[in-house]
Structures are given as C-alpha cells and as structure tokens.
Amino acid sequence: MDNYKGTMMEGTSLTSAVSTTDRKEPAMTDTVKNAIPAIKAEDLPEFAGQVIDIFEDFLEEKGVLIDNPERDEDTDNAAIIYGSDYGYLQDRIYNTLRNWKLTELEADPLQR
Questions:
Q1: Neighbouring residues of 59: CB distance < 8 A, sequence distance ≥ 6
Q2: Does residue 67 lie within any of the structural domains?
Q3: What is the band of 93 on the pLDDT scale with cuts at 50, 70, 90?
C-alpha cells in the first residue's frame, strides 16, 4: 500500500478512490438470458468427466480414498470416484451448467 501513499485522500480505501464510472459491471441478466449455450448437450459427458478428473487427481495427490463398494467389486479399476458416486457428481455438474445457462436444457445425452 506504501506505493499508493499520497495518491489517495486520507481515510479513503483503494476501491473507494476509483470512480464508480470507471468500474464496468457486466449486465449478466441480459447476457445470460440471450446467450447461446457454451456447452452442447452431446458434450456434457466429456465436460463433466474432465471436471471429475480434476477432483480425482486432487484427491489422489492428497492420498484420499473414498469408500465405495461398487469400486471394491471391480478390482481392475483404480478410480477414486466410481459408479454411483461418479453418476451423482456428473448429474450435479449437468444441473449446475443448466442453472447457469451454460448448456442446453435438453435431456441428458447418455441415459443411465
């Protein structure tokens, strides 16, 4: 903050020293309402899988193993997030994308 000494009036914060006309607030409501979905319904499984992979890699780095009887039955699979856990997270990702209007509102491309 010392670099800014003398450039602001005493008692003002850095954010209050910036004029409100200089700040650009996005008009999210109109933009989101009229936006073309960024992710097509047929791309949802791949997108959700990549997001789940990010968290799975994180859990693996931390040494976390989630108890899952479905995975325990499949000895060839070393995945941390597996079976119904994977499906649950996938559905939550789909719903979040739809709520934020980042994907189409169609039915899931892959029915379980």
A1: 65, 66, 80, 81
A2: yes
A3: very high
